[in-house]
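Researcher: Quick sanity check before group meeting.
Model: Go ahead. Protein one:
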Amino acid sequence: MIRPCSTQDINIICDIINDAAKAYKGIIPDDRWHEPYMSRQELEGEIEAGVNFWGFEINGLLVGVMGIQDKEDVQLIRHAYTRTEYRNRGIGGQLLKHLCAQTELPILIGTWAAATWAIRFYENHGFVLVSNEVKENLLKKYWTIPDRQIETSVVLADRKWHNLMINKEF
């Protein structure tokens, strides 16, 4: 079952993110890795900044989360994680499909360039990598992340965004 997350879910969301983010250890640059990967305070800051989390439950247990954030003329998919023991069961795909159906705005997704499995996941769901030049502009416009993270990240966009950008210079 997919449902909106509430403030009562913050600790569980944090647990899911930190469990799933272990996949990044040793993959993303060492200077970008820290433990916990996301503290409760960071998570609360993301929620205060407008990230709305949705969760996937199995038998009453929250096993996956994904956030969506309204940013001017686009929506950002943020913090998509599934508990390690529940991966590869289609949970992320169902959450992504659900969130994409919530908006008519173009959708952008940022992830680590070294997280090839994440890039492949989004590409398999119709998202396309943008060029490095466009990526930097998008990350600076819509995200609040350090320059080092901009260097080591990629952005994927849905077809709506690509269709809008035809004949436009970003």
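Researcher: Fine. The other one?
Model: Protein two, sequence then structure:
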Amino acid sequence: MASDTNNGNLLEVLYRDLALALGDAVWAFARIEWFTYECLERLSHEHLEELVGDLNFRPRTSIIRRIIERRELPATKRDRVLAAINAVDDLSSRRNLIVHNPWRIWIDFEAREFMTEIQKYSQPNKKLDLEELRSFAKACGTAEVELRESLNAL
């Protein structure tokens, strides 16, 4: 019975770790998503942010990319912004995996521990574990800062 209690306690700790990591990951990318609206507002006099408010993330970044490519800018500044846009676009695929797929929790009897991962249901080889989720949130923070700084430098 003691092992049931220990497993129950482990599940409670695991729940808190997973919930916090998932929340941090979603929040970190949400900050990037919101910033795309700020970018569109800043880069356009036409209130593009209102016109594209219902578009998914990548179409918004595509519009930002096209605006930057059309402007006469020093190559180093343009390339920095475009690289920052590419970085957040790359993160969007992992964000979709995180947000739209379930956690899998099971016991690895050989390792004698609980295992967790987010697994794409239709492609089980696509998955993220708790550490990758934390790494994703950190990468989002770095990407957001780079996107902001590169656009502010224009």
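Researcher: One line on it for the slide.
Model: The chain has a mean pLDDT of 85.
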